[in-house]
Amino acid sequence: RTYGMACDGPVFLEVKRRFGDAQIKSRVQVPAESWRWAVEPGGLEKCRAWGLSPKKWKVLQDFSALVAGWNLEPVVCVRYDRVPLVGRVDPELRVTFDRGIRAFSCHDYLLHAEDADYQPADFPLTFDAPDPMLVLEVKFDGQFPVWLRDLTTRFELRRAAFAKYCVSLRQVQDGSLRQRSDTRAARWEG
User: Fold this and answer.
1) 84, 76, 170: which is closest to 118 by C-alpha?
2) 168 vs 132, which has greater pLDDT?
3) Tens of pLDDT along 96-125?
4) What's the chain look like in SS3?
């Protein structure tokens, strides 16, 4: 994962796991110029030069073991426009709004920056709705805040599992990654 339209933000290697309703993400920030070491055969030894703490080293080992053990390779890059909010009283509460989900079919270890190469992946059928929708994510440690539960109930927001990567991957695999048929541009202006 990286950030910014030019893919010039920090680079993170991430592992996400689901346990029932909870999703746990482990990640480690690595040097942008040498992040590929973590996915190269025998590259883990080169990664020692990064000087990671024991906890971060464990995340890196886990990431590299999954890539090697499952023989994982790049298939799709996903991009979206995000508005992140962090709680003032409770900084562990994070709310994000993601829209303009788009994907790029790739088969190389690269952080692809050319936005024009990405195609929309948020077709109305993706959401089972008449128009593309935004993805609202609520992230918290511990319990879901009661006031936020009341707010989501009031606005009749429905909880649903939605993985931007998996939606994009399915569209790449079945060849349905294409331009929208409506008049909206691939990148929504906000």
Assistant:
1) 76
2) 168
3) 999 999 998 888 888 888 888 888 888 777
4) CCCCCCCCCCEEEEEEEEECCEEEEEEEEECCCCHHHHHCCCCHHHHHHHCCCHHHHHHHHHHHHHHHHCCCCCCEEEEEEEEEEECCCCCCCEEEEEEEEEEEECCCCCCCCCHHHCEECCCHHHHCCCCCCCEEEEECCCCCCHHHHHHHHHCCCCCCCCCHHHHHHHHHHCCCCCCCCCCCCCCCCC
14, 25, 63, 157, 161 from 22: Cα distances, Å: 16, 10, 20, 19, 11
Q: Which residue has the higher pLDDT, 6 or 131?
A: 6
CA-CA-CA-CA dihedral for 37, 41, 44, 49, to nearest 10: -50
Does residue 7 register a pLDDT over 50? yes
pTM reported for the whole predicted model: 0.81
